[in-house]
Specification:
about 425 residues; alpha/beta; Rossmann fold; 6-stranded mixed beta sheet; 15 helices
């Protein structure tokens, strides 16, 4: 009798377990083993004292009358509650008082954070000491028009950010399918840009051939860095975390130079060798699992591992459904890629960011069938997105094995959004 191996997939705060025959299991591929620092605050202080390609924060902030810290939101695990108080201390040491400092939450096109979520993310001390505000990507009055980039992308940036003498970005560096890696200039675009800017930049990525996941130098990253310079981003404090959210390293300094130093560290944390492509990829969305707008990142690591014509199984709770701020996606995201792109070009899809992600999903569906296991997404919505819903992981895996045959192999990516597969035949 064939041994069946239990496999556990993170699922929000819980887990889901599936049993896969040993003969069918290619392997479980997840980042692991990166040494974490014993004291996160001490590592942040070390990074601030050793700036990369830039002056120290105290030196940069002297004489500034308005300072903005642009920090990521609660869809990211960056330890802002540790970082921001240390930035405030450095700014105070430079003579910048708390009432001259603001934190702008880099929502991109995500929903606003609630007051309770802001306290949970940043800590009561930060909320008490400085103003903290949500970015508003859809409000023209909250944006400043900076014209266009040399390639023609319209640049609309948060007004509070543009009124600052000094802008500091706070985020984390992980593999990302749009610009190669998160972090660096990405805190500005899409973090605090208008929706049209974000949509146009996303389209640059999804209209090209090939995956950008894990590709450091690429046209999308270059565009983001141009926009960040126009917005006045002077420095970044970026972290590299392990899959449990523990700090591996921090970098501070010039948005280009410090980011690239962080990417080198990030590759060692998230790069995972896999021996070959396989018929079935079982992929968990943790920690990007609030809504499918985050969980879709599961697709791109899986896409590097699945064979053409294979099946990707996404396991994600998505308690907030498909996309809170892009509710119309279910009306068009299940269409073929050509139809979606034509609708974008014709102006029939006005939400460019949603259109770009729908196009990315359609591109993935060209190469693989997508199955979905999610308590937060209704079966009808899953089908509208072009996915096949299943009530549990076991039934999804069993159906895929039935489709591909008794010798089909399953690769498991339990932390797919934070995994950079290194595959000899087509991965990074």
């Amino acid at each position: 009798m064939t041994t069946r191996i239990p496999i556990t997939i993170p699922y929000g705060a819980a887990t889901r377990t599936v049993h896969i025959a040993a003969d069918n299991l290619l392997g479980v591929y997840a980042p692991g083993g990166a040494p974490v620092v014993p004291d996160a605050a001490a590592e942040i202080v070390r990074a601030l004292a050793a700036p990369i390609g830039a002056p120290t924060l105290v030196e940069a902030a002297r004489g500034c009358r308005r300072v903005v810290i642009v920090a990521d939101d609660n869809t990211r695990p960056t330890p802002t509650g540790v970082i921001v108080p240390l930035l405030l201390a450095a700014l105070n040491a430079a003579g910048v008082p708390d009432d001259a400092i603001r934190v702008v939450i880099a929502l991109g096109t995500h929903r606003p954070m609630t007051p309770d979520e802001i306290v949970a993310k940043f800590g009561q001390e930060v909320v008490r000491r400085v103003a903290v505000e949500n970015h508003e990507a859809f409000d023209p009055a909250a944006l400043v028009d900076l014209g266009t980039t040399p390639s023609g992308v319209p640049v609309l940036v948060n007004r509070t950010v543009m009124e600052a003498d000094l802008v500091i970005g706070v985020g984390s560096i992980v593999p990302h399918h749009i610009p190669g890696f998160s972090g660096g200039a990405k805190i500005i675009q899409p973090g605090v840009c208008g929706e049209r800017t974000t949509g146009e930049v996303h389209l640059l990525s999804v209209r090209r051939e090939g995956s950008l996941l894990g590709v450091q130098e690429n046209p999308v990253r270059a565009e983001m860095e141009v926009i960040a310079e126009q917005a006045g981003l002077r420095a970044i404090l970026n972290t590299v975390l392990d899959t449990q959210g523990r700090l591996v390293a921090a970098v501070y300094g010039d948005p280009r130079a410090a980011f690239r130093r962080g990417v080198a560290i990030s590759r060692t944390v998230y790069g995972v060798p896999a021996p070959e492509r396989t018929e079935i990829v079982l992929a968990g969305s943790h920690p990007c699992d609030i809504e499918f707008w985050q969980a879709h990142k599961t697709l791109y690591a899986a896409e590097l591992v699945v064979r053409p014509g294979g099946t990707i199984i996404i396991v994600t709770p998505c308690p907030e459904g498909v996309a809170v701020t892009h509710p119309d996606m279910v009306q068009f995201a299940g269409q073929p890629a050509e139809a979606i792109d034509a609708a974008i070009r014709a102006g029939a899809i006005r939400d460019l960011t949603a259109g770009a992600l729908a196009l990315a999903w359609a591109n993935t569906r060209r190469h693989a069938a997508i199955s979905l296991v999610s308590d937060g997404i209704a079966d009808a919505d899953a089908r509208a997105l072009g996915f096949t819903p299943y009530p549990d992981v076991q039934s999804a895996v069993d159906a895929a094995l039935h489709r591909h045959g008794p010798r089909a192999q399953v690769a498991v990516l339990p932390h797919a959004p934070e995994t950079l597969p290194i595959v000899p035949t087509g991965g990074v």
